[in-house]
Amino acid sequence: MHGGQLQTRRPRGRPRKAATELAVLTAVRELLAEQGYAAATVQAISTRSGVPISSIYRRWPTRVELIEEAAAIGPPQMGNPSGDLLRDLLRFAGDLHVAFTAPATRAAVPFLLAEYQVGHLGRPPEDWVRHSWRPLLEDILEHADPGGAASRMDVNVLFDLLLGSVLVQLYVPTAKRRGASADPATELCLLVAAAPASVRAAEEDPP
Question: Helix axis angle, 63-71 relative to 14-35, nearest 10°?
Fold first, then answer.
C-alpha cells in the first residue's frame, strides 16, 4: 500500500521473457515480409524489436535458427479426421500451401533450404522444421479405410511428396506457366485417394 492505494507488482519471469521473444519474432517476420531474407540481420532485428543483440543470441545461437523459428508455421487444429481420405488430404494439402505462402515463410524458405545444405547447424535433419505436420498426416491415414492402400503408405514418403509439390508450385517459375487444371498437390491427393480401389482390384485379379 502506498498513499492509500494498492500497488500492483510487475510480474516477473516468464511473462516478460515471452514478451521479449514475441517482439523479436515479430520483428523478424516483418523484415522478411517487407525486405526479404538479406535484410533480416540480427542488427536490424535488434533495432526494430528494441531487444539487445546479446539477448537475441542468448535465446537463438544463430541467425538461421532465429529466422527458422519466426518463419515456421505449425499445422492448424483440424480436429479428428473425417475418415474421407480425399477430403482430409485435400484439406491438409491446402493448409500446407497456405502456411508456406505466408509472406515471412515464403521469403525465408529458399534461403533456409540453402543453409540446410551446408549442414553447419549441428542438428539432425528431423529437427530443422520446428513444427511437424507429419503427425497430422499420420492421423489422416489412420482414420482412412483400414483395408485400403492408405493404411500401408509410409507417412514420411507421402508428406515429402505433398511438401515437394507445394514447394515446386511456389518456387519453380515453370510450374506456374503450365496452365494445369489443378495444382500438383491436388493431383497427388486424387491419386492417393483412388489407390485403395486400384489395389483391391489388383489383389482380386492378379496378373
Answer: 90
